[in-house]
Amino acid sequence: MPSRPPSAAVRRRRRQVRTGVMLAALVTVVTGGSVLAVNQLEDSEVLVRERCSATVGTDTFELSPTQAGNAALISGVAVARGLPARAASIAIATAIQESRLENIDYGDDAGPDSRGLFQQRPSQGWGTEEQIMSPLYATGAFYDALVRIPGYETLPITEAAQIVQRSAHPEAYADHEPEGRAFASALTGNSPAALDCTLHEPDGAGDPLAVSAAAEEVFGPLGGVVDATTLTLDVSGTSGWAVAQWAVANASTFSITSVSHSGLQWGRAEGGWTATTSEPGIVTVTVAGVTP
């Protein structure tokens, strides 16, 4: 006997079952895809979040590469002038409070004409706006004022910074003393291999001549030897570590891939400092080459 065609009710139930199965499968695909996308986003965020850290003792502090580059300049000028690391600590803590260690071109509550790393004001005799917007000039002007303070090396940061800056919020400088001290200790070379930067791949080839010129602008003549991708500097001791860690702090800017000094090497790809065969009195800076 030929079978009867399914009734309308049965056909509806079958369609509902098929629709439910399809929706469940779609939800699984979408949900799985969403989880995958979130995981990929989280991984990507970890990879692209560039940062530099200074570790001294058990304390670690982070800055962006731009901030770290400015901290390295501030510390490098102190080294070039023969100033103690305490001077760099005071200057970095002050710049964190005044500008977040960024070379800002607008005023704040310090005054509408305040500018630069230290929010110095042309109307208060710090120099022209163009001069103040030069981090090298602004840092030099800050140290010029700092060293005129008798016994500044032993003063609390709040007091030393306030005498220089004449801020409306002098107590705020002390809030940044720990990170100021950590970055100053690393970037003046007093804490070897204490600075590390986590960076993505270089955007393009680097120029060792540009690295040499920038380093000498901060530290003075270094007598570097340059080839296609490498800068070699004959500088040892505390100054050697100051220059080496200055290079790490500026690795993002100059497409630097590795820095070695005194038996240790920082590598951009893996981060951190590892043992190598570098000579004690030599700083070697390698930049990204031209991609074939």
What does this structure look like?
- By secondary structure, the chain is of the alpha+beta class.
- It has two domains: 54-187, Lysozyme (Orthogonal Bundle), CATH 1.10.530; 197-287, no CATH class.
- Helices cover 47% and strands 14% of the residues.
- It has helices at 8-48, 65-80, 85-99, 129-132, 135-146, 157-165, 177-187, 208-219, 237-249, 251-254; strands spanning 51-56, 59-63, 195-198, 225-226, 230-234, 256-261, 264-267, 273-275, 282-287.
- The strands form two sheets. A six-stranded antiparallel β-sheet has the order 4-5-9-6-7-8. Strands 2-1-3 form a three-stranded antiparallel β-sheet.
- Strand 7 and strand 8 form a beta hairpin.
- The radius of gyration is 28 Å and the shape is globular.
